[in-house]
Amino acid sequence: MNNEDFKSGFVAVIGRPNVGKSTLINSLIGQKVVIMSDKPQTTRNRIMCVLTQEDAQILFLDTPGIHKPKHRLGEYMVKAAENTLREVDLILFVVDASEGFGAGEEYILERLAQVKTPVFLVVNKVDKMSREDLFPIIKEYAAKREFSSVIPISALKKDNLECLVKEIKALLPEGPHYFPEDMVTDQPERLVIAELIREKVLHATREEIPHAIAVDIEEIKQRPNEDVYVRAVIYVERDSQKGIVIGARGALLKEIGKMARLDIEHLLGSKIFLDLWVKVKKDWRNKEGSLRSFGYD
């Protein structure tokens, strides 16, 4: 193919928390790059994921869910998402078809009204409803603003993703290979490992605990027996949360480690010895020094 025909560009994936943005990106890339959870507001950093095909390279920016912030971490997350809108070639506004239009969607549309970037409405989770029920939902969104394209999908089932990619490529400008073909994310290895561990904590714990959790990778080293030693600290905000994460006789922490180790081994392609610790850093979500130390600049 002539290099002049090659397309590339940046695509922001936005939407209310928990509409399936991370699931969509992982399905498009073909492997787990960003964490998934049934708990809202779990994506905290803007993560770039790279999809390279023969005729195009699409750089997806998985943003924290846009929501009304309740603490400084929340303010950081919303700012990261909103800043992205002005830096990209295209915006995918992902909505959950099974939940319909609400105040969260209205809040996002108000922000989209301030940008000139083309917007696709991506209606996710259509596998949960009939075509007859889907049409009124699409009609309701279309009445709110003009979208460059409206594409119903199921990120989990990978339904209609080829159509989505085709529509994206049609809109992107001609451009270069920004990243090598085998690269799927711009995030450093340590951050991806920390996020995989945090995902397992989210799955294993409940209620307010997940949002009080941060993970710091203190050490990664190759050992003489050829496995990789990873020491990670799970930070919580209160002593009571520490006890919950550890569990009775350390059972929950052991389960978290077991699940995380499998994902990290898949990521690194080698055996892992995962050394997990739990520590308390009181009220870290409202302290700028703590936010910076965990990579939320």
What would you note in describing this structure?
With 297 residues, this protein is an alpha/beta fold. It has two domains: 3-171, P-loop containing nucleotide triphosphate hydrolases (Rossmann fold, 3-Layer(aba) Sandwich); 189-293, 2-Layer Sandwich (GMP Synthetase, Chain A, domain 3). It has nine helices and nine strands. A six-stranded mixed β-sheet has the order 2-3-1-4-5-6, with helices on both faces. Strands 7-8-9 form a three-stranded mixed β-sheet. The N and C termini lie far apart (41 Å). Residues 35-45 have low confidence and may be disordered.
Throw out a few tags for this protein.
297 residues, alpha/beta, Rossmann fold, GMP Synthetase, Chain A, domain 3, 2 domains, six-stranded mixed beta sheet, three-stranded mixed beta sheet, 9 helices, 9 strands, 35% helix
**CATH homologous superfamily grouping of the largest domain:** P-loop containing nucleotide triphosphate hydrolases
- Which architecture of the largest domain would the CATH scheme give at its second level? 3-Layer(aba) Sandwich
* Structural domain tally: 2
* Contiguous helical run count: 9
Radius of gyration: 20 Å
Proportion of residues in extended strands: 15-25%
Enter the CATH topology name of the largest domain: Rossmann fold
Average pLDDT over all residues: 81
Poorly predicted runs of 5 or more residues: 35-45
Strand order of the largest sheet: 2-3-1-4-5-6
Overall shape: globular
Largest sheet: 6 strands, mixed
Q: Would you list the SSEs in sequence order as H and E?
A: EHEEHEHEHEHHEEHHEH
| Protein structure class | alpha/beta
